[in-house]
């Protein structure tokens, strides 16, 4: 179906995985990109700080890339921008709050002045040569979030971005269902929709009801109230502020991202706090406990977060005090449950009171449940559908949901990252695959930690390592120093004295045997030493530490 | 309150943690122990296979320990027996199924013939010199489970063990509420009760309703049905068998623990499968797919389990086939959610259908919810209460639940592992603490991996390691070989050539400076090399690998 009038949709990340959302849309000489997120390392990615998408494909087509369009300011949609813009400096488009958060990031990476950030408002349409990109207000767990419609010469592609349908949002700005309905009436070629919560029946509860629960909880609080939530959830923040003001409390923000984002949100008018109601963490001591609210990071139990440091008494400024009430206003992201539990247990142990999801409705998801998804499908009734945002199981279930609503399976495309969906006004099919992948960020290094390094780290983590070192004199075929053995992460020194002594004897014997036979090639010596050591240690301990034989020659 | 007639209750594990349940009860010259479990390593315990309790206290009082009484056959209640019995060989008491599972374990450790296992039936009372130990039938997610009442001269202690209240259990053996009520009427000194699900309102749904769901699902299955569940959940197994037989399917068991436990359960008459209905995994190919059920391990997504191996095509005998239906009949234990998700996603990707908790009611917890706990408290109305089995937050909430039912806070004891609760007929208080702890099992090693080793493994996992080795001649104050640098888990070799070259130069310079100044003490040389290297690497990479300087002298 090759045709220069076709539109190509190429997810470069985010399909069949959580996070790292980035999708390219291509028509003739124009490529636009929606979102540019990171994902967080899974437990196998030892030492990796974060994961960004491999954008080789965009770099190979850099002259055609016209801009990156951001749906909202969450890390899994904006987090890669500082890294990607260093490689591919193209204009970025987003709403005011989204770009406010992006600006902060680019500043930290010292590249803000090199970047072109274009502020848009919901409703705006950016006109490129052939493509038009329309921002459509939606509702999500961050303010100023948008869906995006791409108007192409062969039809409209509607990408919901992350969304839920909240009819009573805190800022009063409801999702622009009218515009979406209008697009649907005029015909949408392809719908791409958020699949995160497709397994959940019913409808999300409105954000406002969390506010009601919080207000009730605040009304009974006798000491300080410390609420941990996502720093980006400005609406949640606003509701905590409202409950605090109602009960005569001052508000302090704690934790770097909480301080950063609350400041951006206040500056830009997304977070409203009456004059004189905010205080700094340093000022908390000047107020009676029952007049203080602290909004903090750490809702995921992150060990270095403000909340965890309070719980484990390592926070420099904040200590647990009598009658403190802690509220975890968030769900643990999969994988974080144990960390969150640790913090909750520790707070209880220290005598504090803690309220969390299992006990009260203090959190609601930002992603549409089944009935919300059905509404969008029904309004849009697209020609083709592609589920996005979610693990494979979610994409699969979203495809089933669409079929229950009457779509034919052949019109649904469940893509993998890197696959190319090509659309004409008559047909759609997967026509190829481009290079994609994950790039690991570790410290200053971007991409210098790969599978070999990670495999070694995993191996080291499991059984530790053992270095054998010996100096030999080539000419005389003799050992002149060593062999010495040094271990880390293997066994306790005191427990292993006999073991290491015997190991040394074995290595020395192996080495002497080789030298006696005039074997002097270091790689043979090393291989033999390693082999005999592995065998011995496994028999004795059932462990396989990394063995590092080093031969020095003089 | 020291008095030789006092009873002491000493949890040696299992309080404020999940697993590793073991509690000592002491009266005069008698000590009895309830349960002897393991816990599984958390993510910080790199390379550790399992965790057993430190029983120093029991070893120091070994002549007084009269026996270990087991409530039921779950790992967190029996798993340490092979290790503990090697140190402290005392009689073990338990019901038939429980001891059947224990026997298997002791056989694997080659110590069965050295151990004394005493089979009891629910209702039996074991009479020791002063203490009587009564087994009382309860219901749980494993058959033949018991609560235990200890009759002491100063009163009765009732330990519920793990339990829920199922009025229609699969084996028809309901919890002996009559006996519990009877004990309560005559006065119970101390109640110790399962806190696992105290945060959940209402009542567990009965196991039988899972059977109804499974039967409905089986009625629609067109190919093989593969059900993953806990090997020890004989009742679940029975229901899967019943549904299979109803729809003309043969049953095969896959996975080592599944094969072991199903065999024990059949032998002992706890699992009933009609003649000719079981087949081996090797025979599956001889039957049409729609006549096959496979009951397998792997409900927690364990990477080496049968289910994961099927999903990732590494199972030697079982492959995914068209129309396969996979059922995950279990909840992910906290921390395992991502692993389970991986397997589910992979099964979907390979075209199979998968049903799990988010979609259908295919699992129910084995631990009492709030209303069940209230029933037990109401029947027993003990003088003192001690919440057990659960993290700290659960113990705390169980204590609150007891207070809502009318107990006074002063009569509730929320202990930590190692604390001693001393009871007389007049009062109860925490009077001391004994030595307790965790012992790590890694391969053959029991206790040879401790905090230093784990700290090193964590460090290695984060940033890898870098060995610097040099040979020096003492007399001439000169370097005669090296310095060489070898890294593992740090950076890609090809990316780091320049880095490592510069690092070598720095080390050589450092070493030469020292030698020039006649500094020859190896610990000074090593410290200096390490320090300069750390500084250099952190500046360049923002990483801190373990640095291992080795100086050989000739």
Automatic annotation (TrEMBL), chains A, B:
Top-level enzyme category: hydrolase
Positions contributing to substrate binding: 231-233, 363-367
Protein name: Ribonuclease J
Cofactor binding comment, as recorded: Binds 1 Ca(2+) cation per subunit. Seen in 1 crystal structure, it is not clear if it is physiologically important.
Metallo-beta-lactamase domain residues: 19-214
Lineage top rank: taxon: Bacteria
Gene Ontology BP, a term: rRNA processing
Assembly description: Homodimer, may be a subunit of the RNA degradosome.
HAMAP family for this protein: RNase_J_bact
Cofactors, names only: Ca(2+); Zn(2+)
Binding positions (Ca(2+)): 47, 49, 442
NCBIfam families in the cross-refs: MG423
Active site, per annotation: 194 (proton donor), 367 (proton acceptor)
Entry similarity comment: Belongs to the metallo-beta-lactamase superfamily. RNA-metabolizing metallo-beta-lactamase-like family. Bacterial RNase J subfamily.
GO CC terms of this entry: cytoplasm
EC number: 3.1.-.-
Pfam families from the UniProt entry: Lactamase_B (PF00753), RMMBL (PF07521), RNase_J_b_CASP (PF22505), RNase_J_C (PF17770)
Binding site for Zn(2+): 72, 74, 76-77, 140, 162, 389
Compartment(s) where it occurs, according to its Swiss-Prot or TrEMBL record: Cytoplasm
Matches recorded under InterPro entries: Metallo-B-lactamas, RibonucZ/Hydroxyglut_hydro, RMMBL, RNase_J, RNase_J_2, RNase_J_b_CASP, RNase_J_bac, RNase_J_C
Keywords on record: Calcium, Cytoplasm, Endonuclease, Exonuclease, Hydrolase, Metal-binding, Nuclease, RNA-binding, rRNA processing, Zinc
MF-aspect GO terms: 5'-3' RNA exonuclease activity; RNA binding; RNA endonuclease activity; zinc ion binding
Gene3D superfamilies cross-referenced by the UniProt entry: 3.10.20.580, Metallo-hydrolase/oxidoreductase, Ribonuclease Z/Hydroxyacylglutathione hydrolase-like
Purpose: An RNase that has 5'-3' exonuclease and possibly endonuclease activity. Involved in maturation of rRNA and in some organisms also mRNA maturation and/or decay.
